[in-house]
Specification:
about 140 residues, alpha+beta, Aminopeptidase, five-stranded mixed β-sheet
Length: about 140
């Protein structure tokens, strides 16, 4: 099945569907509607039927901090190298865009995947933390 990478954000509906299908934490429609247009970079994978089956984004201040997020491939399309293609596109963009000494981070939900692009665990030097705004 042929796939095409496109430098574009997914629709709000597809963003929510992909995260849900992959078992990722929920985001509110309002948050996604506000957040997607503020992406520094976004890339999607589209199948031959025109459906978005994967996505990845970069957010941050476009200078000193870049955060790779919302990296997901629909479970029906996993195991075909699409996640690697998405990360290759993200890292090509970062390499072309980020100034020297910029900090690029992500939350790694898959052991052993992101290391191939040079990512390293931060612990014990630092610990990842989060805070979620409740309704």
């Amino acid at each position: 099945m042929p796939y095409e990478l496109r430098e574009s954000a997914p629709t709000v509906d597809r963003f929510l569907e992909l995260r849900d299908a992959a078992g990722m934490s929920a985001r509110s429609r309002e948050a996604v509607e506000r957040g997607l247009p503020n992406s520094s970079y976004a890339v999607i994978v589209v199948d031959d039927a025109g459906e978005t089956v994967g996505m990845a984004r970069v957010v941050g201040d476009d200078g000193s901090v870049f955060h790779v997020c919302d990296m997901v491939v629909h479970p029906d399309h996993q195991g075909r190298g699409l996640g690697s293609r998405l990360m290759d596109a993200v890292m090509d963009w970062i390499d072309d865009t980020a100034p020297p000494n910029a900090y690029v981070n992500l939350l790694a939900d898959v052991d052993g995947f992101y290391e191939q692009w040079g990512f390293e665990r931060t612990a014990p030097a630092s610990k990842g933390m989060y805070y979620r705004v409740e309704e």
